[in-house]
C-alpha cells in the first residue's frame, strides 16, 4: 500500500529556478563555501529572468578574479577577458553591435585597480552597459592581497600590519565620472540587489551596481570577522538604506556603517546617440550611421 | 569575395604609408578601429577618423593602447573586422592582448609603425627593432603572422593581406611598418573594388546545439560565431577545451597549444611571401625586409657591376619565418648579409636556419635613420674576400 501511495505523490524535481540561465555542465563552481559571489549570480539570474529580455542578445563580460569567473557560469554569450579589461572589451562589443545588452561583471580589484582607468572613461563616455562589481574588499583569486577598496587598518597579505592606503568610495567615483545609475547593496539585501540589477539593465547608458560581499576565506578569516554567515549578520545590522544619498558621504570604514541604496538615477545621452546625432548634423545625408 | 566599391578609393594617389595603410584597412572591410595617438602612427587613425563616418565604420580614441587592443577584439566578436594602430611604447602596452587574440583565435590586425627604442627612444625616427617583440612579446608560446611593407603601395596592399590572413587563420596579424615607410609619400594605385580579393569570416552553419567553439572538423581553424546569434558560447583566455570551457590540464594545454602553433607553422609555405632578385647562382645573398630593402638596392647594384654574384631576398612575411627556404638556400650560397635597423634580430633566425652552411654577416644600425648603402656594399665585399 505504502508503495502505491508514494508512487502517486508527485515529487517535484529538485531544480534551481535559475538553472536555465546557468551552465550546469560546468558545475560545481570554484567558489568557497560562504562566498557571496554565488548569491550575486542568483540575484543577477533572477533579474535577467524578470527583465524579459531576449537572452540571446545579452552578453556578459568579466575580467579576472574569483568574480571574473562569473561569465563562465552563465548560459549567455560570455567572455572571460584579461585582468582589468572587461570594460574596454565590452565597449568594442557594444559599439560594434548596438542591439546587444552588455553586462560587465567583475571584482573590485579588477574594475578599480588595474581597470580603474577604463571604468572612469566608459562612465565619462556613457557607453550603454551595466557594470556589476562584487566588492569583497580584497583580492580573492590571488590570495588575499589588499585592493583599492580595502578599508584602512584591514589586513591583507601585502599589508600584514593593516592597510594605510586610502580606499576608493566606488559610488562617488562612478557618480563623478558620469554614470547615470549608481546603487550599492550587500549580499544580505538579495531583493534589493535583484531589483537594482533589473533597473541598471533597463537604464540606458552607463549604470553601476556595487554589491558588498564576503570573502570568508581570505578577508574575514585574516581580519577575524568570522565566517560568511557572520558577515551577513554584520551587513544586516550595520547597513543603512539611504536612497538618493550624496555619494560623497558613502565611503566605508573598516567594519563601519554601510550606506546602501540607489544613489543616482539620471538620463544622459549615450555615447552612440551622441556620435550619431553629431555626425548626422555634420554630414547630413552623407553620413552612413554605423548599422551595427 | 570582392571589396565594397562604395568604400574603395579607386585611383592613383600621392599619399604616405600611414594614409595608404588606412585605405588598405577600409578596402579590406575593416569597420572598427580603436587607437591612441602616438607618433609616427597617428596619421593612420586620423585618416580613419576622417573616412569612417562616410563608409559606415566606427573609430574610437580609447584611453590607452591596452584598451584599444582589447576593444577591437570585442568588436570582432560582435562580427566586425577590426584593427588597432600604434608605435613603440603603445606596442609594448598591447602585448597581453596579442596573446589574448592568439589563445582565443580572434582575427584582428595590429599595425605597428616602428620607431627607435627602447622606451620613448626616437619618436619621430625609424627603426626595425620590434621584430622580435612582434614574435615573442606576449608571454607563453604562440604564433602570429607579421608582414613588413617597404613602400606606401605595400602599406595599402599588405594591410588588405593582413586582414585576409587574420580571417583565414584566425590569428592576430601584425603589419610591421616603420617611420620611413609610414611617412614616405609615393604613388599609390588603388585598384577597382572588383580587383581586390577579400576573405570573409567563416561563420559556422551548424545550429547552436551542435556547434562547439574550437572544434576544427579536420581543418586546423575552427569556425566562428558572433554574439547575439543564439549560440551562447563562452570565450576565455584560460586554456580551454573544444567547447571553449576552461580546462587546465597538461593534456588540454598540449592539444590546444599544438594546434595554435601548427595552424601557422604547418602553413608557413602558404603564408610565405618573399621577393627574390638574382638569387640563382649567387655567392652572397643579402636578406632584408621593410625599408632596409630599398637601401640594399644601390649596394647590390654596385657590387654586381663589379662582378660580384650577389642576390637579394626581401622577406615580406617575416613571421612565420621561412625556415625551410633559408635552410635550402644556405646550402647553395657562401654567405648571407643581413642589414636591419637594429643591433641584430632577424639575423639570428637566418643564422639558426643556415646552421653553419653559410657565413653570416649582420649590418647593424641602431636606428634613427636608414643604412648608408656603402655600409651594405662594404659588407658584401668583405664577406666575398673572406669567403
Ligand atoms: C595583468 C595581470 N596582473 C595580475 C593578475 C593576477 N590577478 C588575478 S585576479 C587578481 C585580483 C582579483 O581581485 P578582484 O578583482 O577583487 O577579484 P576577486 O577575486 O576578489 O573576486 C589579480 C591581481 C593577472 N591575472 N593579470
Ligand atoms: S577566495 Fe574569497 S572571493 Fe574567492 S571564492 Fe573564496 S570566498 Fe569567494
Ligand atoms: Mg575582490
Q: Could you explain how this protein is built, in words?
A:
The complex is a heterodimer of chains A (292) and B (387). Chain A is an alpha/beta fold and 292 residues long. Chain A has a single domain, classed as Thiamin diphosphate (ThDP)-binding fold, Pyr/PP domains (Rossmann fold, 3-Layer(aba) Sandwich). Chain A is built from 11 helices and 10 strands. In chain A, the strands form 2 sheets. Chain A has an 8-stranded mixed sheet with strand order 2-1-3-4-8-7-10-9, sandwiched between helices. In chain A, strands 5-6 form a two-stranded antiparallel ribbon. In chain A, strand 1, helix 3 and strand 2 form a beta-alpha-beta unit. In chain A, helix 2 crosses helix 8 and helix 5 crosses helix 6. The N terminus of chain A is likely disordered. Chain B is an alpha/beta fold. Chain B folds into 2 domains: 185 residues, 3-Layer(aba) Sandwich (Rossmann fold); 112 residues, Rossmann fold. Helix content of chain B is 39%, strand content 21%. In chain B, strands 2, 3, 4, 5, 6, 7, 8 and 14 form an 8-stranded mixed sheet that branches. In chain B, helix 1 runs parallel beside helix 2, helix 1 packs parallel to helix 7 and helix 12 packs across helix 13. Chains A and B meet through strand 2, helix 4, helix 6 and helix 11 of A and strand 2, helix 2, helix 3, helix 5 and strand 10 of B. The complex binds thiamine diphosphate, iron/sulfur cluster (SF4) and magnesium ion. The site of thiamine diphosphate has 18 residues of chain A, from strand 3, helix 5 and strand 5.
